[in-house]
């Protein structure tokens, strides 16, 4: 590994992205039982920051032959998604107008905030996991993969989810918590 390539992982923007990404993951991992208003208020502050830190990352490309290992299992993903769905309750779904399939459909395409957040979490958490291992080459490759996935997948999911969460937060009269089941 060349010295300048290894320096990318210690760039100030990378360190700041790692910090925000870890905080995002921690929020989602500890969200179970949160009130919807508290969760939505917090995630609405965190998502724009995560997006900003992702677009400020210095360019880098993978160097190794093998993909870094993943942290998020199907079970972890599903438990997280279900916890978020429980918090968001009847406000979890939204209509996505930025889907390429939309032009072929006369029906709106429904998305779920909980699923979109879990998708973002999966990429970001896998990145954080590899970064915590502290091996420069795999850290570098994890950064390159996370950056590419941001461009191709989770960056768009993030802004779409942000729009949906804005609606949850500011829709008139719909700011209440879901009814408690007896």
Quick structural summary:
The chain is mainly α. The protein is 63% helix and 4% strand. Strands 1-2 form a two-stranded antiparallel ribbon.
Distance linking N and C termini:
60 Å
Oligomeric state, counting identical vs distinct chains: single chain
Instruction: State the helix count.
Output: 6
CATH architecture: Up-down Bundle
Using the coordinates above, name the CATH class.
Mainly Alpha
> Order of strands across the widest beta sheet?
1-2
Strand coverage percent: under 5%
Question: Which structural category do the helix and sheet elements fall into?
Answer: mainly alpha
Instruction: Determine the CATH superfamily.
Output: Protein of unknown function DUF5063
Order of helices and strands, N to C? HHHHEEHH
* Structural domains: how many: 1
Instruction: Give me the Rg, rounded.
Output: 18 Å
Helical amount: 55-70%
Q: Segments where pLDDT lies below 50 for 5+ residues?
A: none
Q: What is the tally of beta strands?
A: 2
Structure, explained:
The protein is about 65% helix and about 5% strand. It has six helices and two strands; from the N terminus they run H-H-H-H-E-E-H-H. A two-stranded antiparallel ribbon has the order 1-2. The termini are far apart. The model has no long low-confidence stretch (mean pLDDT about 90).
Descriptive key words:
single chain; 182 residues; mainly alpha; Four Helix Bundle (Hemerythrin (Met), subunit A); two-stranded antiparallel sheet; 2 strands
